[in-house]
Every structure is written in structure tokens, then in C-alpha cells.
């Protein structure tokens, strides 16, 4: 079964990406985690995301497109990236989520991937 691991980070976590004193440890932890998922043969897809300040939100209101710079929600945790993994069950997916570098901070949301109606 496929599960999406939604990686959440704080603004401080995003700042570590560019901090000369923290970037090595930050990226090292993520590269190690990504390599472990790859080596286990369970990775279907995955990507990190640029910081929330680069986001653009689009909504339709009365048929008109409204565009807002930045993320829609003002929250402490922001979407940092994702992995889609193919594992036997939820417990296995939770085990992989618990190994993510952000699991000790904002956390990892784990959701089953919805299959198209014809594939169900």
C-alpha cells in the first residue's frame, strides 16, 4: 500500500537550510533519511520544497482567479516536502515516518494514497 509522508518544518528549520553553521547537519540528516528510503526499495516519489515564502495560492471566487503570494495558512508548521512510499501496512509507514529528521520537531503526517476509482 502506498502512503504519503508529509514532512512539516518550522521557520527555524527552513532557516537551517541556509545557515552556514547548521546547513551541513540539516542536509546530512535529510540525505541520510532519503538514502535509507531509497535503499529499502520503498520510494515511489519524493521531493523537498522551497520555503513557504515562495508559495503562491490560487482560489476561484465568483469565477475570478485570486492569487495570493505566500502560503494560505499562517501556521507554525509548514509543508517542507514529501515522500510516497510503498510498504505493507500503516505500522511500517509510521516506522519510516518516525525516522524522519522532522519527526522530533513539527512531525510527519502519514496518509494512505487514494487510488483512482478504477484501480480500487
Q: Order of helices and strands, N to C?
A: EHHEEEEHE
Q: Count of helices?
A: 3
The share of residues in helices is 25-40%
Cα radius of gyration in angstroms: 16 Å
Largest β-sheet summary: 4 strands, antiparallel
| Mean pLDDT, all residues | 91
**Strand-pairing-aware structural class:** alpha+beta
**How many extended strands?**
6
Proportion of beta-strand residues: 25-35%
Give the strand order, joined by hyphens, for the main sheet: 2-5-1-6
Q: Which features would summarize this protein structure in a list?
A:
120 residues; 3 helices; four-stranded antiparallel beta sheet; two-stranded antiparallel ribbon; flat; alpha+beta
In short:
The protein is an alpha+beta fold and 120 residues long. Helix content is 27%, strand content 33%.
Characterization of this structure:
The chain is of the alpha+beta class. It has three helices and six strands, in the order βααββββαβ. It has helices spanning 11-16, 23-39, 90-98; strands spanning 2-9, 43-48, 56-61, 64-69, 78-86, 108-112. A four-stranded antiparallel beta sheet has the order 2-5-1-6. A hairpin with a 2-residue loop joins strand 3 and strand 4 (64-69). The mean pLDDT is 91.
